[in-house]
Amino acid sequence: MSETPSSQAVPAASNAAGTSTRRSVLRAAAWTTPVIALTTAAPAFAASMSKRGLQGWVEVQWSDGRITLDGRGSRPDRGLWITDTKVGDQITNVSIIFYLRDTDAVAWAVRPGDSGAWTLPVDQGISTPSDIGVPVRGFKITYQLPITATNTITELNNNLVFRTTSNAVSGSAVWARRSVNVNGTDITFLRGPVSPNGSSRSRSAAPEDTDLVQGASAL
After folding, report:
1. Which residues of the chain carry a pLDDT beneath 70?
2. What global pTM score does this model have?
C-alpha cells in the first residue's frame, strides 16, 4: 500500500469527513464531561459505606443568617448507619458533635420533620481540638432510641432537623465528630470543615424552606 505524500492535497470529501469526525468528538466530549464530574464525588460516599463507625450524611444548611442541621433523606447521600456490625452487637453512646468556627453561644430549636430520635444540640463550650487546630464551639446531639444490631449495616433513625434561633453564627464553618461504642470499643472520627461556599444540595433531603437555602454541604 502506497502512502500519500505530505504535500499532496487531501480531497474535499476527506476534509468534510475529518471535520465531521472532529465535531462528533467535540459533541461527545461536551456530553461526557458532566458524567466525569459526577463520578469524582462517588469515592466520598463509597468511603462512608465502608469505613467502620457511625456513617451517613447530615446536611448543613446556611439560610436567613442561621444554620440548620438536616439529616432527612435516604442513602447514599443521606441516612445514618453503623457499619461493620453483626447480630448481637451491643451498640451504645451514638453521638455527633458539630463544631462551629464562630464561637458565639447560640440556642437551637427543633424544626418540622424532626422525629425526636436525637437530642437537641447541647452546648459543649469552646475548645481547640488538636485535629481542628482553631478555637471552636461544640454542640452535641445524642441518639436516644433503642438499637438492635443487624448484619453488616445497622440503620438509625436519621430524621433530625435542628436550627439555630439567631444569626450569631451566620456563615460559620462546621466540623462533625462522629462517635459510637460497639461492644465496649469507642469508634470516633472527624469530618469537615464545610462552609456555605461549598454549596451542594442533596438529591433526597426535603427541607421546609428549600428556596431560602443559600448554601449547603453534606457532613
Report:
1. 1-50, 197-214
2. 0.73
